[in-house]
Amino acid sequence: MGHVRDYELSLTTQGPTYPPSEVMDQHGNFIVIGRVNRAGDAGRTRSEWGAALVAADSPVPPFGENHPYTIVKELPLDPAALSREDRDRVLHTLPLPLPCANYPMVFAPEQCPGADRTRRPSHPFHQVPIPDLRPEDGPKLTSPVTLGQWVTAQGRLEVALTPDERAARFFFEFDALIPNSVYTIMSLRERDLDPAGPTRPGPLGVPNVFVTDDSGRATYQAVMPNPFPAPGTPGANRIVNIVVLFMSYQQNYGGAIGWFGLGGDIHAQLKLRQPAFQEFTTLP
Question: β-pairing, 209-211 with 202-203?
């Protein structure tokens, strides 16, 4: 059993596959960097890592299933291969209620139980209506955030078990995130995407917030109790991935990952491409 391991995080704009992305462009298209659903053989759907602009009226299957997206334009996975037009795409939140969504969850049930009934347009990241903000309060993010900026992000994660193997330390180093902005980190557990009864994704530590400097650099760490119980343990719900979230409303929500969720106010920028941490086992 490994006790320490390093991971390189991958660029993304996606949490689950619905909504297809947590970022839109100025034309109302999802900007997808993640698993792109395409038509496969014999009526099946292929879900492979890629990049594309996806229409907001793509078919929405029941939670736990995938249908082919309606693709507006293919995008290169290599950031250096993006056209000037695509690099200059201004990033926006998703409107509310969330389009093309099937995740059956309210993400802040104690704080905002009616989040799924809120109506709000899409906003450029730099013009999100932050509650109670006044111009004289000095907002730091005042210029458009573009796809070209987004795809420069880099992140590294080190996971190490504590000596008693009852907890694990997660240590992150980041570079070239959006400068002077609030970010959070969420944990994705194996049952969060269970169609038979999903659990609510939660923070990786509380508080799970960090703020980037003028260059988009930051570090973050958290020690999580028993994050990797042995498979088959009754009630086990292992952490299988982590997601680094840009917080467009520049807020943190305590024990919730966001107020509206999934592109309404949280926007995945880095994560692991595949479920991970199988090599670790922790004790209760």
Answer: unpaired
The answer to whether the CB of 208 falls within 8 A of the CB of 239 is no
Burial of 164 (0-12, 13-18, 19+ CB in 10 A): exposed
Looking at the DSSP bridge assignments, the partners of residue 271 are 10, 243
| Phi, psi torsion values for 124, nearest 5 degrees | -60, 145
30 and 24 Cβ atoms separated by less than 8 Å: yes
Global model pTM greater than 0.85: yes
What is the residue type of 109?
P
Contacts of 254 (CB under 8 A, 6+ apart): 111, 206, 207
Tell me phi and psi for residue 180, to 5 degrees.
50, 45
**pLDDT computed for residue 1 by the predictor:** 44
d(CA 242, CA 273): 10
Centroid of chain to Cα 128: 18
- Give the other-Cβ count within 10 Å of 52's Cβ: 22
